[in-house]
Each structure stands twice: as C-alpha cells, then as structure tokens.
Fold each of these.
Amino acid sequence: MASRYRLGFDVGGTFTDFMLVDQETGTTFLNKCLTTPDDPSRGVMDGLLPLLDRAGVGGDDVDIAIHATTLITNALIERKGARTALLTTQGFRDVLEMGTEVRYDIYDLFLQKPELLVPRSRRYEVTERLDKDGKVLTALDEDGVRAVAQQLREDGAQALAIVFLHAFRNAAHELRAAEIIAEELPDLTVSISSAVAPEIREYERMSTTTANAYVQPITRAYIDTIQRRLREMGYPRNLYLMISSGGIAGGQTAKDFPIRMLESGPTAGVLAGIHYGRQMGIGSLVTFDMGGTTAKIALVKNYEAAKSNVFEVGRVARFKKGSGLPVKVPMVELIEIGAGGGSIAHVDQLGLLKVGPLSAGADPGPACYGRGGSLPTVTDANLVLGYYDPNFFLGGAMSLDVEAARKALETQLGGVLGLSAEQCARGIYEVVTQNMLAATKVHIAERGEDPRKFFLFAFGGAGPAHAYELARLLHMRGVIVPAGAGATSAAGLVTAAVSFDYARSLLGRLDRLPWEEVRRVFDAMAEEGLQVLEGAGVARDAPGVVVKHQMDLRHKGQGHEVTVTVPADVIADGQIDRIAEIFYATHREKYGHAHENLPLELVTCRTTVGAAAPEIPMKRLPEATETADVAQKGTRPAYFGELGRFVETPVYDRYALRPGMLLRGPAIVEERECTVVAGPSAGLRIDAFGNLFIDLDEAPIAESKEARNVETERA
Amino acid sequence: MMNVATSREFESITLWIQWSRLISIMDEVDVALVRTSFSTIVGETRDFAVVMLDKHARSIAQSQMSSPAFTCSLPSATRRMLEDFPSSSLKPGDVLITNDPWICHGHLPDFYIVVPIFHEDAVVGFIATAAHISDIGGRLDEFDARDVFEEGLRIPPSKLYDGGVANDQLFRVLEANIRYPAQVLGDVEAIVGAGRLGGLRLGDFINDYGRDGLDQAAEAILDRSEAAMRAAIAEMPYGTYYGETACDGYKVPTYIKVKIDVGPDGVVCDYHGSSPARSDASVNCVLNVTHAHSLYALKCSLVPDIPNNEGLFRPIRTIAEEGSIVHARFPAAVKTRSKTSYHLHNAIYDALGPALPGRVQAGSGSFWSVKCFGTDSDGTRFAVHVLPNGGRGAIEGHDGQPTVAFPGNGTITPVEIIENWSPMVVLERSLRTDSGGAGEFRGGLGQSIRLTTLDRAVRLTIRPDKIRFPAPGLGGGQPGAPGELLLDDAPMALEPFELLPGQVVSLNLPGGGGFGNPADRDRDLVSADVAAGLVSPEASRTLYRHDLPLSKTGS
C-alpha cells in the first residue's frame, strides 16, 4: 500500500488535536490529548501512537505530516525568546522604541506600551547608507560590523536582527553584514530585514525582523525535536508546518522565517472552513471560532481567505488595536474578540452589564465548573438559559452545577441590578453577542463587504451555541456547523497545500517606473517560490501550481493602498492602462468611487506561489430513512430572545442525525465538544457529509413537503 | 422590532446593547472615511472625528479613535449651523459645511461637515465629521498672519449638497482657492460618503427600535453619562484651584492662567488673567477650542472609561475674557492656535494636583510640524508633512513614554516614506539623552531628527514648540529639556526657509516633564536609565543624586 495518509496535528494552549485522513477514501481518524507545555513533542507522541494504532497505520504509511503550533505566539507573548540584539543604520537604533508615536487609547492617562524585544543596550549601529532607490550613499563600515560582533559576543547575544534603511531595495549591505557576523560568530542566528520583511516603513520592518530573530533559536530546536520523534516513529519524510498565510512550508523555511508561523492553529481552522465550503459549493464564509477566552473571526470569499499584511503580537491592552508589536507578514486575517465561554460578566461604573474581556479561563473556570470559580461567565449564562445539559458537558465527561451558576449570577449581578438570575443570563447572552456583532460588523466593513452574502461557519467549544444569534443579527445567509467541529483545525491542516508569499516594496508612479525593474522583482519572487515548491517535491509545471501576482496601488497622494491581483502577462507586457483599469474597478467596488484623473502609485509587489490543494474526498453518509425524531433525546426549557420567554425545546443527538433530516427551530443539537443552539426562525438540515446547516429564513423549509411533515409530526 | 424589555432590563442591559451599537456604527463610519480618504492627514495621521448627534444635535456616540478635541466642538457647531438652516427646512440629501474658526475648531483647515439623517421625512439625527484638510489657501508660513483673512478661505455655514445635488458654486470657489484641490475635494467626498453610510446604519437601528427607541436611548446615554461625570466631580474636594503655564507663543511668550471652581454644580474653568490675544502672530485660540481642551483634560482624569458624549460635558463650563489669547475675537489670526490650546491641560493639571492625586500628568513635549515643499527632478511638485512628537509627561506611578504626544495623537511619517516623497535625507532619528524631565517618575524622552537635502533645495516650514518654556514637571518633578531648532548647529529663526544641499537642520524635540522628587526615584531605575543611555551619568548625580560607577559602554 502506498503512503496514502495525511496527518495533521495542532498543538494548542490546552489540547493537541490530531486528524489522520485516508486521501483515497476520505476516512478520517481523530484524537485529542492534553498539550504538554514543558515538551510539546511528548504530548504529540502520546496522542499520535494510539491514533496510528487505531487506524492500523504505520509511520511510513503517512504521506505527509503537517503541524500547527502556538509555540511562536506564546514565546512572543510570554517574552520567552532568545537574548536578541539589533544592528541598524547609524542614527536609527531608537526607531524600534519610538514606534509609530501613537497612543492606542486616547483617554487613558496610564496607557502602557508593550515591552520591547530588544532593549536599548543591545541595539547597535553601524555606518552605512542607501538612498531610496537602493544606491549606496555611504559604504558599509565592515570594521564597524566586526566591532559589533565583538560586543555581541561579550554581551552573550543569542540572536541578531539586521535592519538597514531601504534594504528592501538593495540587500547587499545586510547580506555583507550578516556574512561578517557569521564569520565572527558562527553560532549566532541572524535574521535580515531584506529576507524577512522586504517592505517599506522602517519601524514595522524592524519590529518584524527582531520578532523573527527573537523566536528563531527556540523554533529551530523545536522543529528538529518534532522531526526526530516523527522519524523514530517511522515517518521518513519531511515535517511541514502551517504558516500564517494559509499554506504549508517545509521545516527549513519555517526555521528561517519562524514569524511566518504566528497563529498557525487558528489559520488552519479557517482553511477547514474553505475545505468544507468547497465540498458544499459555498465560497463566501465568515469563520467563527469561539473558545474559552476569545472568539476569532475570518472572512472567506470565493474560497479564498481574506489576507492582511500586518498583524500585532501580544497586545498589552487586550484586543486594542495598536497595543501590540506590529509584525509585517502575510496572514490570513483573523480578528480576535475578547468573548469566550469563560468571559466574565460584571457591572460597570454606569450600572451597565458588561461581559469580558477578562476570562475565568479553564482554571478556575466558570462558576458552574465547580472548581472554585465564583464569577458569572458566558458559560454560566448559557447553562441557566437551558442551552447546555448539565449532565452532557464534553459528552458527559464533566457535569455542570446549575445552582452554582445561578448563585454567581444572583450574587454578583442580580443584587446590584435588581434582576433575576434568568434576566442576568439573558443580558450576558445579549451583551456578549453584541460584542461579537460590533467587532464583526466593523471588520466586514473594513473589507468593504456585505455580511448578507456570507454563511457563518461555526466551530470551537462555544461557537455553535452563539452562531445562530450572531448570524441572524448580521442578516447572514445561514450557519454551517461542520461535522467533527471539535477537531476543525486539524481538518484544516490535512487539506493544506505548499504555498508561500513574497513581498517587495518598489515605490513610484506607475507610468514612470522603470518597467524592467518591476518585471525583475516579480520574476525573482516567482522563481524563489517555484524553487521552494521543487524543494517540497512539487514540479514547477505540476498541475494546479499557481503563481499569483499582486500590486499594492493607490491614487497618488492617497494614504492607503489597495491590493489588486494582476495577470502575469499584463506585468510581462507592462500594460499600465490595464493595471489602472483593474485598480479603478477594485476601488469602485470597495468604496463606490475611483478618481481616474489621478495618477497611480505602486507601493509593494506581492507574489504567492502555491501547489494545488490536495483532493480529499469527504465521506458521504447514508441517507436517512427516518425522520429526525429518532435522534431526539428529549426536551428541556430554553430561553429565546425572539420569543421573549423560555420554551420547551427539543434536544437532538448530533451523532444520530442523518443526511436528509430536517428540523425546525427552536432546537438544541448536542455533540461531545459543543452544543448547537438554533432559535425559533431556524430551519435545520443535515447534508450528505453530516454537516449541519441552519437556515435563518424559515420560509424555504416551511414550503418543502418534508418540513411540513416535521412540523405536523412535532405538533 | 426588538422585544420590549422591562425598564430595569432597559436600564442595565438594553441601553448598553443600543449604545454599543451606535458606537459601532460610528466605528464603521470611521473605517469608511479612512479607507476612502485622500490626504495622509486624514488617512494616516487621523486628524479627524466622526460623531453621531441626536435630533437636537447633541452628541451621543463617536468612533473610538476620534480625535478628542473635535468631538467637543462638533455638537455646538452643528447647532450653530442649524440656526441658519433649521432642521425643519432640511431635506434628504442635504449636507451642511463650514470651517468658520469661531463656529468650528479655531482655524480654517478644520472642515465641519454635517449629514442630517432622515426617517420618514423627519430629521432623526446627524452624522457630523470634523477633519483637518490638507490646504485652505492663504499664507504658507505658520505664524505671521495678522488676521484670519490672510489665512485662507472662510466658508460660512452653507449647503454643500442640496437635496443630493452638489452645490457647484461652492465647489468651484473651493477649487479656485486651495492648493491641492484634488486631495481636498477627495476628502470632502469621502466624508460625505461615510456620513451617508452612517445614515443607512442609523436607519437599520430605527427599524429595530423605532424612532422613540432612538430618542429614549439618546436621553439615557446623555443622562447616565452626566450623572457619572457629576459623581466623579463630587469625589474632588470642593474649592477653588489655581494653575498657570507659559507658552512659547511666536516672537513674544504668552501665559495661561486658570481658576477652577469645583462645587456641587460642577466645574468652572475660568481663564481670566491669561495674556491678551496677539495681533502679530496666529497663536490665538477661540473659546470653543479652549473649552474642548479643558473638557478633554478633565475627562481623561475623571471618567476615562465612559464612551465620550455630550452628557459628560454638561457639568463643565469654560469662561474667559473676550479678546484674550484663549478667547480670541474675530478676525484674529488663528492658524497656529495649537501653540496655545495644546498647553491648556498643563494649567489645568497644575491646578488640580491637590484635588486629583495620582490623576494629573506632567507636561508633554508637544508635536512639531515640519512641512517640506519643492519640485522634484522630473518637474513634479511635492509636499511632505511630518509631525514628530516630543516626550510624554510622567504621571504618578509611571514614567512618561518617549515620543508620544499629548493632547494630540498623530503618527510619524516613516523615514523611508519621507525620502521617497522628497529629495530630503534623514540623517538621524534618535532619543535625546537627558531630555526626559527628572522625577520619581521620569518624563518621556524627546527625539533628535537631523535632515538634509541631497541635490536640490527644498522649502521648509517648521513650527516648533517648547523651545522657550519646557514641558513643566509636577509634584516636585523637573521640567523636560526644552526643544532646539538648529541650522548647521546654530539656532535659527522660525520663518520658512530654503534648505540647500549640504545644509543640515536639527530638530531636537522637547522631553516630557517628570513627576515627583527625583531623589525618590528607585535607584535600580536610575541605574537602568544610565545603562541604557537615557540619562547621562552626570545627570544621574546632579539631578537624581545618584553616585554610580561610570557605565562601561555608555550605551
């Protein structure tokens, strides 16, 4: 038997999730075990060996192993990276500390900025200077670099970032400085800005390159360990890692650019959404991953995740834009909202009920966990509202204490507000929904999109309990809760393809740029990408290999750029008018207008090179021969805001639901890792793959014969 | 329609749901404006505010990053515009505009644009935007105007659109009087478009809650906020507090004096005794702006967490002598009024130290304005506007941050962008050692910027601040280092000048003031500052009385 299995494993903060899929049949095997933070590779082996056993598969049967990890994000947040130094152009070492000079909160006199990754005493300068076109104004002082090497040695630095002004136009000085450092200090890891983030704006480039340097030593050691343990288990091939832009990359690329692995687990969740969407023929999704502490939202349009070229790590004021370290890497754009099952409710100074961003986390957790938590959380509210079964939490592995939840609501909130526990619970549900609604709306607006065109793809422990209400208030097309919502990220991993994104800034008016240079920049990026593919065993002319070119353009004088995709032949032939047409059309579509009389300015060239996504069949389930009644476990009273009261609500077993079954809201569907809550205007159906759809407009279902049957049977 | 909640539930739950939704509408408007704006001053340096007003033109919500001072003057300016164009006379598609400094925000580049929002033919609210646009004609220099007529075009309250039809005459007048009409008109269009989007969203809100629902929410937001502000004021000991501060002015310094009465009826900031308005410089500040900056300082100290709205302003009054530097009379020159207004909080925090322990901030180093004009090698004109910041003042418990503005909040244009847009070369941007005012909590450091030009002359207009008078310390803290403006290492005049190839202009921006006695500073922090080169060994001995062994590397 050929190696036909794909393996994905996602090391998260609490759990490590595994998925093994047979790429010929689509048969999947899942596992979940506790993460072992002291040595994550131990947890990986703990979960992997039994999984392979269960599937009757040896290490050698695995065609590709793909990994996502929180290691990079955590090392940055917890400041557990290497002792890092910076070498920059004479006169500019403080740029890292001065940043953008903006206060992220305009009314907070006590606002704090994030702690720097490189303190001033380890920021070195050397004489050298390029001009805006990359021409040398002052030669690199090589002796100066050697002197810095000496200081680095004395200081015990473990990693170095080299960032020179305008190096994105000419890498020669950075490369030469790195070479000298390597001669002097062969064991020091060095990151150079022209390789890590060759984009204009020195502060962001410096912040990105220092962050890369900061996590490089631990990432190298970590990847080597995981690779070694996989080898010991019999897997002879290369380990692949999920990167932030939604592709996967080989171990060496990941070691060179560890910063590209930020948020790899959540990114895999978005990819899963795209994969499921393909099977269902739905290309426009908002993925919604709500866990214990946060909710994460991403936009998918035409089967492609919306991307962003900048991200912030470790915000000091939770969830406040501008309070973290900026990192310029291509990322699947995820917005993080301080809303999760553990988010704590409180009464603010105006006497208003607020929820989050503080979270009770997993320990002590919500009051209903009975682990000593006494503060009311979203989970406590959901329990009191009848959404969760106290005896079937995590499939019954844990029981919840309704009385403790009620008591927390009454004592912490009810007394102050003069409201009952139920009223407080309703308030918490409404407020946390509003928090997510506001953030999602603004995010969708930022992308110039309309929520009414999207489905909500809900997963995570708390996502399916809040998805109906969120989608209803956003007037979305419907909700999808995928089969196996508990291992969604691992599902995203096994469906990912080798892909990498490149960017080079090249500023100038489109009609005055030396076009040979534009062409050269794009060709170089494409070539680099194709070589990476070849390194991963994908021939450059293999079917499905895509080279996508993009330009960040703006009207001259405008502050913001718009990224547009430009066909390769248009670039090759220098068809400036065609590029302008594409830009104006995109600008009009997004913002309703474009100024065709103003010249255009190019800021950054971008190229993505990717292999075809693997075609993995999804296993079809047998069609139902009975109605959904056979899956009903019972009923319980649950509260629905649309009705303004508690109603006796049928509860269904997700695992007993079969394709073709139709349900009417209100309904509750329970599975091990989550509970789906659907309100009164919902119609629910199961598709051929076992995915659950919630239609928000009840009409289509009411019109169908089956739906009427369901209704009459229930009546 | 949404469910009708009990009054208790409305009070504690529904009100916040509605309020948060109104704020999120304004965040959407903000995002739309940033994304569609043309000039960097709106798009990147965010010198604008978007506010939602109720049908009585009282502000009830704003975007979270709205520039604070504008938000205080938008409601009163809108009400003034409605005197000329009463609500009852407005129709859907109307848009109002003015930039009158005495109605708006004290100088001509600030455009106030108001989009009335209709529901079934009645005005239900307004989306009002204030934005600093790139040019308004008039003199290029900063200070020298003798009256407002020299400073550019003044637009009285006017209809920019009438029933959806553009007021062509007005657009043509604008176009004929400003230097970058494409940028300015692009921004104006973006503002109107964003305002209309806000109107659509407010319409959705009304569909869910009804017009009465909006009115009820507006009253509750205003009343609840007012009550919270009054409660915060009531925690201060009642009494009269005096403060003052000195401002560089232009050729002659000016002084701000404030007497703050804190009592059961609220707070009165009385600026009698401040310097008279200047007839030889544009540093004059209108009362609107004086009031706005007084409100801002008080909100930051008293109720920083409450979303901004006009209810918070109700208990606070500002009075001043007409014809003074803080209550300039028409037609005084007002272009550089921030040379006065940005110092008002220093006088207020100077006064309120005893009343608000732990919640007053030492003076901050100010932003400087650097404008660079010229013609590039290919014949195109360029204009680059850079706004570097000095250090922030310290507050009890925290050092001031380096190069962070207060009360302004602008971003610095990157060196690589400056060099791409102009022939200038930036030789240095670094923290200024010893510029942070000494104190138990040290002031933030200012920065040194050195500029030159490679192959062609550029015209520079620089507006520095705190050269004459440094940012004051508080609670026994020392002032920050004053700023310095040097041409080839010699002090220079403030008039616009040509920077010739080979010449170097140095901008040494002021540091923030310190808080508390420097001798009380944690010894480890002094050592760390010396090791990092933020404080010199000499200053650590003379100012902090700290005898350290000389640092090994000095870096």
Amino acid sequence: MSAPARGAAVPVAPPAPGLTPLLVLRRLAVPAATASRRVLADRGGLVTSVVFFLLVSVVLSALWRAAAGPSGTVVGYTAAELTWYAFAAEAAVCTIDLRLIERIGEDISSGSVAVEMLRPLPVVAVRLAVESGRALGRLVALVVVGSGAAWLLAGPPPDALHGLLALVSLALGVVVNVAAQHVVASAAFRLRDVRATWFLYQKTVFILGGMLLPLEVLPGALRTLALWCPFMAMAYAPARLATGQGTALLLLVQAGWLVVLVAAAAFVFARGQRRLEVVGG
Amino acid sequence: MVLPAERPRPADDVDPATLAIRATGLVKRFGSGPHAVDAVRDLSVSVRQGERVAYIGPNGAGKSTSIKILTGILRPTQGTATVLGFVPWQDRRRLAARTGTLFGQRSQLWFELTPRQSFRMLAAIYGLDRAREQRRVAELGELLDAADLFDAPVRTLSLGQRMRCELAACLLHEPEILFLDEPTIGLDLLAKRRLRELLVELNEAAGTTVFLTSHDVADIEHVAERVVVIDHGRVVYDDDVPTLRRSLLATKLVDVGLGGPAPAIVLDGVREVARDDALLRLSVDTTRTSIRSVLDVVLDRCDVVDISVVDPPLEQVIAEIFAAEQA
C-alpha cells in the first residue's frame, strides 16, 4: 500500500464505474456460494431442517395417498404422483428461513441496513444473493434426502426429463420466494413491526402457492386466482413438474415472476432507502 | 484559550483541492412543522487528506447524523458536501468503494460465518480479485495481530476481537478515508489501546484519513491530531490536539482509595473535587504539578489502599470548552 503525501491533492472522482448487470452478478456469485457452503457445513442446522422437512412431507403425502386410495386419483394425480408432489412442494418452501421476512424487517427497522448501504453494490442485490445462496445450499440436502424418501414411499420419479425440469424449477421457485419475501419485508421501511405480514405471507404460500395442496383442488375462481399469482411459482410449479405433469412452460412462468419480483424488490428497497436518506433510520 | 472565532480553523488555509472532506452549511432537519428537529444546523467542516480528526460532542449533538451525511446514508436538508470529490448522497456506492466506515454498535460481518468467509464475500462485493484479497487479509492479519481470529465464527469472538475483525473488514479494499463512529465503545482498556495504536499506524503507513467520533477523551488524545467539537449541530471548537491538550486535556483526575482519614492535599494546581471516608478525588492541572509529584505526596501522607489516574469525562472537557467560549 503506497502512502499518499499528506495534504496531497485528492484524486478527481473517476467516471461511472461501469458496473454492468453481468459484472454485478459475477460479484454476487461469491457471497451466494459462500452462504451455500456455510449452510452445508452447519451439520446441526441441516439435520434440523431435514428432519422437519421429512416429518411434514411424510405426513402430508400419507394424507394424500389415503385420499387417493390404492388405485384412485385426486384431481388427476395418482397416489404416487401426490407423494412426489408433497415432497417437492415441501422442499421448495422448507429450504427458506421460516422467519426471513421478520429478520429482514428487523434489520430495516433497527437501522442495521444502513451499514449495508455503505457497500458498492445495491443492498437488495447482496441480500438476495446471500439468502438465495443459503436456501439453495439447504435445497441440495432436502432434494437428496427427499428424493430417497419419496422413492421409497411411492416408487421412482415419473420420468427423467420431468425430474430434471423439477430440479431447475425448485431452484427458480426458491429464488422467487426469497425475492417476494424481500418485497413484503420492505414494509418495515414504513412499519415498525412486520410480523403480521410474515404470518399472512406464509399462509398465502401454503394455500395459493400450492404447498399444502395441488392448486387443481381449489374451487374454480380461487384456482384461477392462484394460477395468476406469483405464489404458484414458489411451490406449485416445481411440485407439478415432479409429478411428471406440466411442461417447460412452467419454468418460463417462474422466470417471468422472478424478473418481476426482483425488479419489485429493487424498486421498493430503493424507495425505502430514499426514505431512510430523508427521515433517518 | 483561543477559540475558532478568533483564528482560522486548521483546514481553512489549505488549497481546497487537497481536502478529503469539505462540507459547507449542512442542515439536516427531521420531521416537519412544529415537531421538526434540526439534528445538524449550518455545519461546515473541512478535513485534509491524511489528517486524523476527532469529531466529538455530547449525546444528540449531531455527530452520527453528520457521519451519515458524509457517507451518503442521509441526504441533508440544505448545504453542500464533497468527500473525495463525490457528493456523498448522490454517489454513495462509488464513494463506498473508496471509504471505510465502522459503526461501533453495528456489525458488517456475517455472524454465522468466520471473519475470513466474511472477507471473501466483502472482497467480491468490492471487486477485489482473489490474489489481492489474500494479500490484504494476510497484511491485515499481521497489522491487527488478528490472523488467529479470522477462522473462528464471528459469534464466538469477544467484543475486542470482533472490533479488530470489523476494522479489517473496513480496510480490506484499502479505503482512503476511514469513518469511525464510537469504535472503542465497550472495549476493555487493552483492546482500546491496541485499536488506537492501529489507527495511528494505519494513518502513518498508508496516509488513510481518519475521521473519528468518540466519547472517550483518551481516543482524542492518542489518535487525533485535530479536534472538532460540535454541539446542537454546529461546530463550536476546531483546533489541533496539542492546543487542546495545553488548554484542557492537561487536567487529570486522581482517585485515592483510603484506609483511614486523610489530610488536605495542598499543591499548586491540585484541587479536591470529592471526599468521603473511603475515597479522595483530586483534580490535577499537570501543567503546574506533575502526576508523579502528586502521587509522592499522597502516598507519603495518606493511608492508601488503591489509587488510579483517569481522564476527566468528555462531558467535562466539553463543558470547559463551552465555559471558555462564553467567557
């Protein structure tokens, strides 16, 4: 490190640094990968997540198998497909910190987010990268264990192509969910407590996201509403692909929601930070 | 004492092009109407590149608000400022790439990670390549005597250890200015001393401008070359530390734990400020009588069970500044 002369002329501010979206993504890859590795190295946390996931998935899939009967179907899904549905939908949601909205809200309302504003990348971009990294790290473990358990209970997955699509869809669903939670948590820039928001969000994902039940089970208007909401991209899309139904179009829908929600998160955080700049934290 | 109104401030007579920080007429108003509060009002301050400046004031004086304006977190209601040529609130991210900020009560490390993992993430965010990151982490491990802390989870570190790691995180990208908001708060004496030494070493080795807020008089004495005192959002004193030391920091407090009755201590520049059966507190003007002389007399005449020499609290120093200003 060279020591500039005391009282030396301060360098003139350089032109725009040229941080293209690609360069930002490259810079964010390391935080995401580090967060993923950290989650996988935390054996205790991982075991807790896996046990919780297995417990819920096994119970839920047993209920659906009972509803379908040995040779029957429920809204077009066989008992085996419903088992894969339950495991995939649970994996998509259980990978994410259950209290993520609350945690983001606390960071905003306590002013901790101000420290993050002093970095050369957008606050929301770093947060999305780190939280997605954490969730995707956990997803690897849940997919490995969940696939094994679903296979034992219901036989092999429907087909390799849908299995592959379901994996991509799970990853997309997780990132969509993380982005949506940042949008909701940004309410903390105005409200002091976002716990109620978290509760509402979680229950909406359970029902309209297809985590507890396939969206085809819902009555007409509600089903239509659910299919037009972003929540379907979080659990329903990967779970449907895991049953061997649905097409790659679901991935496109998820990608669309991802773009919309990341843009929305960037917008609401920028607005929130602007408010912080004016009224303080 | 010579007050700023009577002579130029230390940074007033330098070429504006050499200033790392230049703020003029800053006002920050929170709220509106009858409930509006001016946290900063008509604040003007300049800092030369490579200076070590202590920025002090009582609680609520506007110190943190000023730092938040100068780093771009807050947008002033009025006034102008440039930091390294950037308008902070317009170019916060570009400025962030060249400054480091340490808030004593806020962490920038990820608690579930080790400091080394946090540095890896921060290095990527700041665009440092792997080789530069590794070189910097090794340099900082040596400079901060903290290499053995970098692989322990942050949540297991003591406050003093964590602050050294926080400082390393701030310095990773070789900032030209270091903003430090209460960096020694909560640290034990050894950790405080080490942190102060580090800041001076860093400034002397790399020319890093240090802009420090603190409630601890020792931080000012041992780190800063210049002191800016603000109150109610305005600069009320701005001078170099030797001048301040001569005029105000020359006073020390001697606390004597007593085992029995003690006679009055009569020495030039020594004043008894508190006394009970177990404690005698003396205020000593060290320009008139040395601490050593006072200790000799106290140990000779009193039944001493404990003794300590401390700085007067910052509030007292500030009160004396205000008293001198009003006189």
